[in-house]
């Protein structure tokens, strides 16, 4: 049941959705507890950034592929299976850290993160609701990522953009695309409009911010390289991303 997608045509009982709901809450708690109890005594802001970076579908989907959970997924949706296959094949082109950092054009199937959470829910129930047992299983899977992020505290792209351009950044009202996804525009005054498209508002907003940051960082590099008397390309000449 923990790996049975709602689309599975031979579904006779429950799919993984209830276990996913439970596992999501369990992983959120055990990861948060670990970060809180860390001897570094992180500030509230850092704790928030770390938890946001570690408790999300992209990380869970990546880890699901790394440990091979995707081969046990039972689903009858050709589109989903194709998306998973593409994601897994793309992962083979990256180093051992893939696919925890992926390019913007890689679609990460939500179902992969779902079964990672569902597994946590199943272990929690089978262990007599032992949070320690869940963490004993999942900490080794997440140890490398926790250590990397703890050494270099990540910030969300949206937060980075707002800190870089606090007065000039505005996220416009989201729109729904023809295929049902969400499109968000990050308008940076004097720099351009940068678009992100994702399956929900949060992902689309994050992608728009990442694209804006990419251009702004290139602009900063150009200004730094040219020096105070050099010629810098005007902001209007920079290409925005759709």
Automatic annotation (TrEMBL):
Biased segments, Polar residues type: 222-242
Q: Name one GO molecular function term.
A: deoxyribonuclease I activity
Q: Which SUPFAM superfamilies match?
A: dsRNA-binding domain-like, RNase III domain-like
| Highest taxon, organism lineage | Eukaryota
Pfam families per UniProt: Dicer_dsRBD, Ribonuclease_3
Q: What keywords appear on the UniProt entry?
A: Hydrolase, Magnesium, Metal-binding, RNA-binding
Q: Example GO biological process term?
A: apoptotic DNA fragmentation
Keyword Metal-binding in annotation: yes
Q: Where is the DRBM domain?
A: 196-218
Q: Which PROSITE patterns match?
A: DS_RBD (PS50137), RNASE_3_1 (PS00517), RNASE_3_2 (PS50142)
Question: Which is a Gene Ontology cellular component entry for this protein?
Answer: cytoplasm
Region described as Disordered: 220-242
What are the RNase III domain coordinates in residue numbering? Answer: 1-128
**PANTHER family hit by this protein:** DICER-RELATED, ENDORIBONUCLEASE DICER
Protein's recorded name:
RNase III domain-containing protein
């Amino acid at each position: 049941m923990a790996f049975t997608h709602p689309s599975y045509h031979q579904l006779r009982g429950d799919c993984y959705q209830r276990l996913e709901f439970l596992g999501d809450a369990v992983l959120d708690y055990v990861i948060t507890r670990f970060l809180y109890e860390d001897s570094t005594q992180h500030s509230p802001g850092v704790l928030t950034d770390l938890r946001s970076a570690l408790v999300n579908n992209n990380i869970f989907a990546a880890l699901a592929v790394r440990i091979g959970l995707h081969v046990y997924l039972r689903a009858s949706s050709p589109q989903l299976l194709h998306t998973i296959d593409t994601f897994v094949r793309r992962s083979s082109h990256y180093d051992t850290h893939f696919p925890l950092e992926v390019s913007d054009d890689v679609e990460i199937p939500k179902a992969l993160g779902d079964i990672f959470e569902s597994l946590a829910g199943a272990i929690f129930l089978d262990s007599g609701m032992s949070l320690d047992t869940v963490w004993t299983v999942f900490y080794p899977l997440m140890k490398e990522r926790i250590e990397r992020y703890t050494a270099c505290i990540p910030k969300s792209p949206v937060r980075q953009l707002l800190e870089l351009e606090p007065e000039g950044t505005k996220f416009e009202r989201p729109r729904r695309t023809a295929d049902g996804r969400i499109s968000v525009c990050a308008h940076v005054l004097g720099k351009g409009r940068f678009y992100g498209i994702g399956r929900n508002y949060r992902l689309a907003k994050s992608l728009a911010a990442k694209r804006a940051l990419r251009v702004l960082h290139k602009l900063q590099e150009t200004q730094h390289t040219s020096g105070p008397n050099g010629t810098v390309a005007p902001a209007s000449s920079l290409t925005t991303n759709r």
